[in-house]
Amino acid sequence: MTRVDWQANRHIPACAAAVLASLDLSRAPRPVPERSDSEWRAALYFADRNQLALLVRGVCEPQLPEPVRHRLDRDYAVNRERLLRMREVFREADSALRTRGIECVLLKGFAGIADYVRDPNARVQYDLDLYCPHHARAASDVLEELGYQKAGSADPAADHLPPLVRQTGWQWRGDFFDPAIPISIEIHHRLWDEQTEGLEAPGLDAFWERRVSIEDGPSDYLSLHPADAFAYKSLHALRHLLRGEFRAAHLYELGWFLHHRAGDDSFWSEWAQLHPHRLRALQAVMARMAEVWFGCRMHARVRAETDALPRPVQRWFDASASSAAESYFRPNKDELWLHLCLLPSWKAQARVVRRRLVPVRLPGPLDTVFLEPGQRSRLKWRKRLEYWRYASRRAAFHCRALLPTLSRMARMLRWYWSRV
Question: Low-confidence residues of the chain, pLDDT below 70?
Answer without folding.
Answer: 1, 30-31, 358-420
